[in-house]
Amino acid sequence: NAGVTQTPKFRILKIGQSMTLQCAQDMNHNYMYWYRQDPGMGLKLIYYSVGAGITDKGEVPNGYNVSRSTTEDFPLRLELAAPSQTSVYFCASSYSRQETGQPQHFGDGTRLSIL
Amino acid sequence: KNQVEQSPQSLIILEGKNCTLQCNYTVSPFSNLRWYKQDTGRGPVSLTIMTFSENTKSNGRYTATLDADTKQSSLHITASQLSDSASYICVVSNDYKLSFGAGTTVTVRA
Question: Mutate which of A4, A27, A57, A104 to test chain B, going by most B C-beta atoms within 10 A?
Fold first, then answer.
């Protein structure tokens, strides 16, 4: 049971570089989410998707972009990496809208450092 | 502003002992409250989800309580094990947004 798979697990970037964080789920969930987790803070929603071809901004979308071409994949793109984007990034999925009581399934995260 | 405050920030307990974690929230209107367990280097895993009408919910040695009137929840861990060492995150929903607490880090020592 793979669940939600995130790659890479770790990455160090230089300021101004770009990269894509990959996320894939095999549970046929329509809803997918990207969060960032900073030390001592609660998770913050970056972007979410309610199905293939549909994405929307969360609380902290600046500096990020997403796409959802298939039900399974939901990549997160950083175009011009900045030190403020140093964080742990989590992808999650759920069968229906997360706010209505459906449990979310999280990946194990990508630890990203911008130097 | 919707907020979720957890206490204590961290705690250390001896294996076999019980402990209780607290969650106070100002989220309104209230839809549901969930507790997650996050092992070091892993993603959060759902322990319980409670709606307005549920006062208590258990998952093995984990028991969550909810007082929607005072906007408080607690997570009780019974007979702690070394594998309970983790961060425990309280999350409150107002039906269109989730608000995450910063978590309580529990360390269980032999």
Answer: A104
